[in-house]
Amino acid sequence: MTSRLWEKLKPYGMISPSLAVFGIFFIYPIFYMIYLSFFDWNFVSPTKNYVGLQNFTDLLSDKEFMQVLLNTTIYTFATVSLTLSISLAIALWLNRSGLFYGFVQGAIFSPHIISLVSISLLWSWLMDPEYGLLNWVIGLFGLSPLQWLSHPDTSLMSLILVAVWKGIGFNTLVFIAGLQSIPPSIYEAAALDRSKRWRTFRKLTLPMLSPTLFFLAIMSMIGSFQVFETIAIMTQGGPVNSTNTLVYYIYEYGFRFFKIGYASAAGVMLLIIVGVLTIIYFRMLSKRVHYR
């Protein structure tokens, strides 16, 4: 009995260090954040004032939070849709052998390995209204320079451009891996049936690529909701709150205004939104994914 019990408990013992780290650094902070959302605390005072659901009431009645939620939704939808569509188009083009295509794959993937801090500083210079390279290129065509990061109409679009530029490389390589896993015999059968390219792509390539597309879409959505570095470095949520998103909003109220309870309530709202969207995404699209 002792040996059988040991055989059953041994796998759990082997993964217990990882489970402990996961519980301490992931699970415990989530529950502690939920706990703090019911209190009014300034991060310095040793006492916490219980306020119940007041933080959530103030949050949902705050026009600034609603604007932040709208900004996050627009940023997420635009970033995910543009990144996936452009990456898929590039992957279809690069899915072939040759030194040139290998070089292009490496060049496209290179932004993924660069830190967001470095990328944000680089694009801040490129988008400088007076000395930036982008406005210099626009001026060659006789167009007026743009206030990329200093005008409400273009600031969020500029951040989306940066996110798409960084995310294309990783998604492209994952798409290429998915395309190369499709058996060539399927395309040979389609060629014998004289199937057109668009019909082959819609009826064969997309269904066979659906697991890859499903994975990249869900990961891109979660990552877009958690955007922070580019906003903190490039715009600080401005101008006029036009680029403020949920994570930067939580950071501001938690570590600049020291409203820990209010920031925790915003964090709980972020957790609920991402969780609900993930469940809806799985319910709606999981049946459309083909693993065979």
TrEMBL record:
<keyword id="KW-1133">Transmembrane helix</keyword>
<feature type="transmembrane region" description="Helical">
    <location>
        <begin position="74"/>
        <end position="94"/>
    </location>
</feature>
<keyword id="KW-0812">Transmembrane</keyword>
<keyword id="KW-0472">Membrane</keyword>
<feature type="transmembrane region" description="Helical">
    <location>
        <begin position="204"/>
        <end position="228"/>
    </location>
</feature>
<feature type="transmembrane region" description="Helical">
    <location>
        <begin position="106"/>
        <end position="126"/>
    </location>
</feature>
<keyword id="KW-0813">Transport</keyword>
<comment type="similarity">
    <text>Belongs to the binding-protein-dependent transport system permease family.</text>
</comment>
<dbReference type="GO" id="GO:0055085">
    <property type="term" value="P:transmembrane transport"/>
</dbReference>
<feature type="transmembrane region" description="Helical">
    <location>
        <begin position="12"/>
        <end position="35"/>
    </location>
</feature>
<keyword id="KW-1003">Cell membrane</keyword>
<protein>
    <submittedName>
        <fullName>ABC transporter permease</fullName>
    </submittedName>
</protein>
<dbReference type="GO" id="GO:0005886">
    <property type="term" value="C:plasma membrane"/>
</dbReference>
<dbReference type="InterPro" id="IPR035906">
    <property type="entry name" value="MetI-like_sf"/>
</dbReference>
<dbReference type="InterPro" id="IPR051393">
    <property type="entry name" value="ABC_transporter_permease"/>
</dbReference>
<feature type="domain" description="ABC transmembrane type-1">
    <location>
        <begin position="69"/>
        <end position="281"/>
    </location>
</feature>
<feature type="transmembrane region" description="Helical">
    <location>
        <begin position="260"/>
        <end position="282"/>
    </location>
</feature>
<dbReference type="InterPro" id="IPR000515">
    <property type="entry name" value="MetI-like"/>
</dbReference>
<dbReference type="Pfam" id="PF00528">
    <property type="entry name" value="BPD_transp_1"/>
</dbReference>
<feature type="transmembrane region" description="Helical">
    <location>
        <begin position="156"/>
        <end position="179"/>
    </location>
</feature>
